[in-house]
């Protein structure tokens, strides 16, 4: 019996999620059609700018509403987590009717919790590249799917009062960058899945440790409500899990930072109002209301936003130092990925992965152990 009732997760999320903005049927259809078109347009821009070549066809994005996003994410969670959760559940069951009843009740509670979190996120996510899809029996379907949440994109562009075409293409550039990352580096999907599964397998705790972590979670909630700095993710981590989480954070910071860098740096000839969009988007992110700030901090979202900013800074610095072709060595293998320390110190990654002799002449050459060049890359400023 699974530790998460997936059907309860879907029904809870769909029941709790807020409806999207009021949009005329004709405008809604136009938005969906344009998002599909712009997602295809973005593919060419991303490939040309990054020099990365996907190994499988892209195709237009799947455009969904909020309930559709929840269903897709529950399916993705199930693909990755269910085999591990079933293994953990089997190891922990005490056996007999009482054990099965306890697991059944617990799985429903966990399903409600997951659904509640997804209902919150479903009103805020603009798009994503779905890494983990249910297996295709024929083996013909793509291994991942680019998804755009139309109600959230329309709501955000209205709230920001920006050009809809520019904003939609800007979002597509970010999400298309994720598709290119994973389809040009097939090993990357397995690496992320392995890290997630290791994280779960390292969570095998006894009752006393579980109570301690629950107390830590309660302390985290109280700390955030007092205006302090804490989150539930860290409260539930063991020391071993923290090390794994550092690896997950590093690769996701790289992926998200790269997406942010590309969406801003592709250029005003593609998205004329990109600088204004970024400025207003950043201001909106920083101006969340009190309830949103509390929820975001508890879920670790604010921490992740900081890490994504660090990822974008890493990409800008490395591209400036050594050029795009040498930066793309990050996608070669798990060994060339930056560590979390290297995300925060790009020169350390350059010294480890990019041989000084391989540095392009136009960027200058320096003694071994010294990184040539300086400053940060171009592109719109992060106001």
UniProtKB/TrEMBL annotation:
Chain residue ranges for the region called Disordered: 361-383
Pfam family, one: Zincin_2
Cited Gene3D superfamilies: Zincin-like metallopeptidase, N-terminal domain
Source domain of life: Bacteria
Biased composition (Gly residues): 371-383
Name assigned to this protein: Coenzyme F420 biosynthesis associated uncharacterized protein
